[in-house]
Each structure stands twice: as C-alpha cells, then as structure tokens.
Amino acid sequence: MLLWRNIPFLRLLLPLTAGILAAWYFQLYYTAAFYLLMAAGLVFILRVLLSEKLYFFHEWLPGIIITLFCIAPGIVLVWFKQVWHEPAWMGNNYHEKDIVTIRLKEPLTEKEKSFKALATFETVIHNGTAKKVSGDLMLYFRKDSIPPSLKYGSILATDKLIPLVENAGNPGGFDYKRYALFNGITHQLFLNSRDYTILSQTKQSAFYKWLFDTKAYILDVIRRNIKGDESVSVAEALLIGYRDDLDRDLVQAYSNTGVVHVIAISGLHLGLIYWLLLFLLKPLDKKKQLKWLKPLIAVALLWIFSLLTGAGASVVRAAIMFTIIALGDIAGRKGNIYNSMALSAFIMLLWNPFLLWDVGFQLSYAAVLSIVLFMKPIYHWFSISNMLLDKGWQLCAVTLSAQILTLPLCMYHFHQAPNLFLITNFVAVPLSSLILFGEILLIAVSFSPFLSNAVGVILTYLLKWMNGFITWVDHFSFAVTDGIQHSPLQTVLLYLFIAATAVWLLQKNATALKWSLGFLVLFFGVQALYEYRARTQQKLVVYNLSQHAAADIMLGNQYLFNGDTVLLQDGFLRNFHLKPSRILYRTYHHSLPPNLFEQAVLNIRQKKIVFINSSYQFRELDATIKADVVIISKNPKLYIDQLIKSIEPGLIIFDSSNPLWKIKLWQKDCERLHIPFYTTSEQGAFVMNL
C-alpha cells in the first residue's frame, strides 16, 4: 500500500486504460463518459452530505470518484480519435468520380516497384462545389511515373476511385486495417502518371521541411561514406530509424537472435544520446547561473532527435521520462521511477489512446519495468571483483532482466522466443552503441571529406562484423523457438506466474509459490486444451494472396499445401501470408504427398475438392464429378456453363491469382446459374471445416 501511495499517476493510469479498453471493445458512445461523470458527482455529493454516516467508507469514496473521473476521458478520447465520427472526414463526404486534392505529408520513399508517401486529404469537389475534408491516406506511385517536382508539400488532384484500407483477411494475419486506423490512415491509393495532376501551389511547414532536409542530409552522408548495402541499411536504421533499405532476411536474423531492438530506435538509443549530450554540456556546470540550462538544452535536442526518427512509441516514452528527470534536476528533486513511467504512459495515452495496442509501446514499458524490478536482484547473484568482468556481468544482468517481462509479449505477438539472446546482446549492444557514437561523429565531421571517409571506413568494418555475427548465430537451428501460439488468456497467466514467482523468490513468501504453481498448471491446462482441439481439426483454407494461388488442407497438426511453388521458396511471402494461419491453427508439420501440385481432385474426409488452374482444358465426362468445393486459380480459360457439364460444384472459390475483370464475368454466370461462389479478393481468405 505504501508503494501504491507513492505512485499517484498509476492510480490515474489504470482507470484511464480501463476506459480506453471499454470504449474500443464495447464501442461506447461518448455520452457514456457523461453518465460516469454524473455518477462521480453524485458520489461526491453523498460524501459531503453524509460524511458522518459514511465514516467507514471515507478511504474508498475519493478513490471511486477519481477512478470514475479518469475512466470518462478514456471513453471520450477513443470516440473522438475514431475518424469516422468527424463530420469533415473524407469517408463522410466522398462520392465516386469526385475530384479530390491531396497533399504529401512527407517526401517520397522508394520501394521495390513503387514510390510511397503518407498524404492527407485537402478538399473534395462534388458537383462543382469544393469542401474541406480531413483524413490521411497512403499513396503509391509507379516508379516510371514520378516527375521530379513531386515532393513534400506537393498538392495533386485526382478523380480516381479512392478505396478504404482493407485487410487480406487471412487467418492469424496482421490486422493492417486496425493498425492504419490507429495511426489516422483510412484510405490507400495506387496512381499512374495519367491518374493525377500536380497543382502549382504547395503547402509546407518550415519546421517539418527542416526535419526532412536534415534527415535527407544524414542519409546522404551515411550512403557516401559507408560501403555495402547491408551495412548502410543497418547504419540508417541505427541512427535515425530509417528502415526502408533493410533486407528482409537480415531483419529476420536480428529478430530471431533477440537483438531487433538494435535496429529499431528505442529507449536504449535515446539513453545513450542523452548521456552524450550531458557529457558535452558539462562545461555549463562550472557556472552556477547557467547550470539549469544543461538539462533544458539536452532535453530540447533529445526531442528534436525523437521527431527526426519518426517519434515512435518507445522513443516518445524515453523522451518524456528524460524530460521528467531533467525537470526534477532543475527543481532539485529526485523522482520515483515508477511514478515517472506511469506519468509518461498517462501523457502518451492522452495524446493517442490507441498507443495501448502499439507493440513498441507495450515492449518499451515492459522492458523498462522489468529492468527496474529485476536487474539488481539478478546482478547480486554473483560478486565479481574484476572491474571489466563486473561490467560484463552488469550487461548480462540488464539483458536477462529485460527478457523477463518482454518474453511473454514476444511470444504472443511474434510467436517466437530467441534462445541465444544473451550471447547476441552481449556482443551487439556494446558494438551497436559504439557504432551509434561513430555515426554521430561521422555527421559532425561530414564537412571534411578526409575525416568523414576515415570514420566511414571504421564504421563499415564494425557494421560488417555485427551483421556477420548476427547472421552466423541465426544459422544455428536452435537459435530460436518458433511457431509459438499463445492466447491472450495464456499471456495473462504467464504474467501472473512471473509475478507470483518474483514475490516468492524476492520476499521468500511460501503462499506466492503455491499461486505460482497454480498459474503454471492453468497455463499448461489451457495449452493442452488448444492442442487437443488442433489434433482433431479438419480445415480447408484458401488464402487471399494477390497474384498467387495458395491453399492449405489442415488435418490435425499437419497441413497439406497446394499452390504456387514460389511460396515454398520466398521466405517473406510464406512467413507473412501463410505462416500466421498455420501457427494460429497449430499445424506445425508440413506433410506434402508426392505430386500434390499435379493432382486436380483431392478426397479428404468424405469431401471432394477440385483444383482448377491455368492448365485446365474442358472435356466432357461420362459422369459429372460431384465436388463439394471447386477452387479456380491462375486465370484458366473456362466458362462456367462448360464447367458444370463435367463438374457439379457445391461451391466455387475464385482466388486472388485471377484477374478481377474475369472474376466479375464468372460471378455473373454463377448468379445466373444459381451456383454459390466465394471471392477471396473481396471477402478475404476462405475457411471451411471438412
């Protein structure tokens, strides 16, 4: 209770979080907040009028009032952050064939086949009348259609249909629609040069233009002085969080070995830069009247750096906490680390309540809390007199402690657990810190070609060593435990187990040991239930994968795959589109019968599934095949009227490897012939129990 009283912002943070969760999952109207405030006011009046009769509730009533007052803002924030509630939102004012003006909010980023930029809607012109609208969208341009004049602040006009962001709908897949919504993005648009007109006016912010120019200058310095694509891409990510040039396989290697935080700007980077700034500003300590400037300048530069890197959740969290520490230094007061964490989270959720679902936000606070709670107890396991070995053990203690509360989140979100994280962090953390300081030095001496080239050569070797070491460790088959599937309930049980175990070990509490064992038994009991369900399942999954055919037949914990062979070779496509579904349904083993790709008809558990692809040729049969499901892919030359002469389909599935114009023709034929059909490009992946 003493700890609880010393963390007042935690008592505000928890009800705010409860209000946010309730508002989102129950879609509460903002008037619900009004009723809560009325209830809080009523409780306050009762406390005043009946103070003597409610003597035994004196300690509880203020807490109830504060809780109700904090739940209400959470509901209001979620309501107003959902853009479709805004009258000026694009989706509430847009009609097909309207002319829309769009402004680029950032410079173009080059992708493999296109250019990409975040943009915002300016106006909608409907029947000759222009109306100001709001909302953001992602713009994609074909590479061969970009004129040099398209830049940050450019305004373009288009009458092309602007669709809403939609998910692929594959089981277990990333919910991009929700992710985009939580970042204020609701639409996306792909443009060719003939689809838009660039207007003469531009609209720019001087500060953001300076940020983008500075970022472009830093990237140019890195690319001129550091050699090797992988080295350059990691250097860009390490210094300013620019990840567009990173190789997918290299990112996967960093993730598998537990050091992906090295190439994602985090609190570690901000801590190093804050320490460097305080060191460089140390001369201000000599003059008492200027001493207060030191933390203010350091914090101001830290915030500029945070904005330069994109102001991710973990970066903003660290910046707010360092700001609180700096203000405490100026006031001559030392703050409570738990209270500082709660205050920073409270501020961030007031700014954007949807950060609660941000993985970076969750991992950042889990890591800091884990280090604060467990670093010292772990460090005190051993007493080492040698200073160098002691520093090494301190780094190990920090790494071990950080994993305790972040591991359940990693297993839940990423379905994997790095087994060699201690080894890789022991090498990568100090090496990446040295590289970070080296990159700052590179920018500082960029005015001198000789000095910048010399620093660049050293950084190139350091980056090659780090990438080579991470890749080498990742090659070990036991480097990562993959395919983990935990439900939200299991994740909660894991945290309860960790909490009870910590109380038992740190406070020698025997009751906590019983609770710990109980939570562990419950965890494995839930796991056993899910495994039992998986072993008895029989499913057909036809994936929604643009320009590719892919289907899984899941029998127990095994799956049969039928689709494009490129999906067996391309690790990114397989891991992003197919693997989440297999993990969700706990199908860990791939059983591929001989010549499966050549089989047109499969009989699975009294169900007949027919695959038709580009090799299909119509021929009449003596007796029609009764098929429960017919899957049409790869744009075959067929007519539905001819198809039903040889196959009697219970359901026809058109997957995303077929062109949309042909699917529309087939759909009309199916409607005319009263044949049920399903289109993955419109309805998402098809899932059926066999």
Write a concise keyword list for the protein shown above.
690 residues; alpha/beta; 5 domains; eight-stranded mixed beta sheet; 23 helices
Question: How would you portray this structure in words?
Answer:
With 690 residues, this protein is an alpha/beta fold. The protein has 5 domains: 2-81; 90-204, Beta Barrel (OB fold (Dihydrolipoamide Acetyltransferase, E2P)); 266-353, no CATH class; 488-535; 538-689, no CATH class. 52% of the residues lie in helices and 15% in strands. It contains 23 helices and 22 strands. The strands form 5 sheets. Strands 1, 2, 3, 4, 5, 6, 7 and 8 form an 8-stranded mixed beta sheet that branches. A 5-stranded mixed beta sheet has the order 14-13-12-11-22, with no helix packed on it. A hairpin with a 7-residue loop joins strand 11 (538-542) and strand 12. The radius of gyration is 29 Å and the shape is globular. The mean pLDDT is 88.
Topology:
Layout: H1 2-5, H2 8-25, H3 31-49, H4 61-81, E1 99-104, E2 109-110, E3 114-126, E4 129-132, E5 136-142, E6 154-158, H5 176-182, E7 185-191, E8 196-202, H6 206-225, H7 229-240, H8 248-256, H9 267-280, H10 293-308, H11 313-331, H12 337-351, H13 359-379, H14 387-414, E9 416-418, H15 421-444, H16 449-474, E10 480-482, H17 488-507, H18 510-535, E11 538-542, E12 550-555, E13 558-563, H19 566-569, H20 571-584, E14 589-590, E15 601-604, E16 607-612, E17 625-627, E18 629-632, H21 640-646, E19 647-649, E20 652-654, H22 660-673, E21 677-679, H23 680-683, E22 686-689
Parallel strand pairs: 5-7, 13-14, 16-18, 17-19, 18-20, 20-21
Antiparallel strand pairs: 1-3, 1-6, 2-3, 3-4, 3-5, 6-8, 9-10, 11-12, 11-22, 12-13, 15-16
Helix pairs in contact: 2-4, 2-12, 3-4, 6-7, 6-16, 7-16, 8-16, 9-10, 9-11, 10-11, 11-12, 13-14, 14-15, 14-17, 15-16, 17-18
